[in-house]
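INFO  loader      accepted 1 record
INFO  loader      residues=196
INFO  predictor   begin
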Amino acid sequence: DLAQEQASIAHSQPRINNPTDRAIMLYRTPLRTQYPKADIHLKIVGDGPLLASLKKLAGNDSNIEFLGFVSDKQRNKLYAESRAFIFAAEEDSGIVPIEAMAYGKPVIAYGRGGASETVIDRKTGLLFQPQTADSLALAIHEFNDMAFDSKAIADHAKHFSVERFREEMLEFITKTIVDWQKEKGLEWVRPGTAKK
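INFO  predictor   done
INFO  writer      dumping tokens
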């Protein structure tokens, strides 16, 4: 199955910036020279002012494909059909790796920033450090010999869902109000209920 032989990778949708540049640099040299039999297809999603320079950097490598801006439907299809998602950037939130994990896809991520808090090393993906070409190449090579549980990965992503956030935020707000009212000697009346 082609999907099992290739690792398709997408990047943050809105704009291509230095993290993508780094991903191409990290991808090209050591992986191709140290692991020439690795059949990896890098798909880069997004557009922006660096697109032309990144295409130039990628050269004629047929394993690097620039898809430009894609619709949500196309993005979701890419997640669903990929084998893994590479996230070589350091970001505070790391929401894009969570999107990939929601599809049950393991994430190969730089082990700092938000990804280090959302990706469980060797369970929902692989974390690599330092942020070098050799380190990423080694992580990809190691990934190719590993098996991941897609259901466990998707279940883990649910910990970061909007529904869970809403529930926990409502619980926090309710507790804060109740505690404040108790401190002031006020009686708690749940909104939408009349006091009898």
